[in-house]
Fold:
Amino acid sequence: MNPSDSRANLSLFLASLPDAVFGSLVGKNIEIQILPLDIATAHEFVLYETGNICEGVLKILTGEDSPSNLVAFIEKDERIEEDNRSKIPELAYEIQTKIFDPVLPILKQAGFPIKEGRVPQPAPKPIPQSASRVQPP
Structure:
């Protein structure tokens, strides 16, 4: 989806939330409309690469999809540059911890049809061996 359209749809969803739900989110200082872009920027994604990121967040918040499918959904976006593809699991996991972990329980308690699942924690990156390190015999 076009990044502008997906951000607009996310904003429309947030604007449609009942006041009590929206108030709970504001009370926790969670800015759902801004966080996906902030997270993407922190991982060096550019604006045109954020369409499926925002759309994926929306699909999960509305109960249309499970968080466990977010990585695969983002990977389908052909606009994401090759050098950013390896960052998708880390980006998705950060969305899990900063958005889904605090927000989904609030939505579920309010009666939203939230699907179970979590974005899997990415495997730790291997630490490169230093060329100057002396290997024991």
